[in-house]
Amino acid sequence: MIRVLLPAHLRTLARIDGEVKLSVTGAITQRSVLEALEAEHPELRGTIRDRGTGKRRAFIRFFACEQDLSHQAPDEPLPAAVAAGTEPYLIVAAMAGG
Q1: Main-chain phi, psi angles of 58, to 5 degrees
Q2: pLDDT tens-digit profile of 47-96?
């Protein structure tokens, strides 16, 4: 099981309490995890990735094992600890303003 932590506004939108646990078949990549998340919670489609291009939205960041994975290729494997379910995959809402 892959553990995913979402920012509060996305948990509210999807009516989720706490972390999400997902079954992902095949390679454990950002793309496969996000596709599994959106399949289980279709209300999140378009909030994390652009619906047309599939690219990460500007104010969303991805982290795992204390690493910023936001600019990593979507099909690059996630860290082994995430694939094993011992570490969560974090989707974080970036802050902007001044």
Answers
A1: -55, -40
A2: 999 999 989 998 999 999 999 999 999 999 999 999 999 999 999 998 77
Q: Which domains does the chain possess?
A: 2-93 (3.10.20.30)
* E-strand stretches of 1-98: 2-5, 20-22, 60-64, 67-68, 89-93
- Long-range (24+ apart) CB contacts under 8 A made by 52-60 are 58/94, 59/93, 59/94, 59/95, 59/96, 60/91, 60/92, 60/93, 60/94
What pLDDT is recorded for position 94? Answer: 80
* C-alpha torsion sign, points 41, 43, 44, 50: positive
3-state secondary structure of 50: coil
If DSSP codes are grouped into helix, strand and coil, which group holds residue 76?
coil
pLDDT at 97: 67
pTM of the model: 0.91
Q: Whats the size of the chain, residue-wise?
A: 98
Which sign does the torsion angle of CA 37, 39, 40, 45 carry? Answer: positive
